[in-house]
Amino acid sequence: MRDDRGGEYISNDFSQFCAEHGIIYEVTPPYSPQSNGVAERKNRTLTDLMNAMLESADMPYEWWGEAILTSNFVLNRVVIKNREVTPYEGWNRRKPNINFLRTWGCLAKVNLPKPKKEKAWTQNSRLCVSGLCT
What we know:
Blueprint: E1 2-3, H1 12-20, E2 26-27, H2 38-56, H3 64-75, H4 87-92, E3 107-111, E4 125-129, E5 132-133
Parallel strand pairs: 1-2
Antiparallel strand pairs: 3-4, 4-5
């Protein structure tokens, strides 16, 4: 396992865990993304996608968690280089359903069922942003 000293994997407990389980833990020079491991590259890819999504949708940074989850969801459902199946297909042995995907950050209005005791003129919808109700 390789790490770029970003702080995610630095602790005595983690070092002890690696030693007990025979995991070789290497530390790469800082600011050298070419020598980072798979987890570090995936982290960078997700962060870049998150920033692009937030910027293009003109969304505040506090939506970063939803952007990361959405990025990961989409990346698991697209074909990667040198493979003919998506990561989702490899794990679940079936094609993913992506018919419900929409542009991230677009405005939508979601109709909600009316509770039985509400008046007929009561608003029964919410304004949402790409599936995130506000």
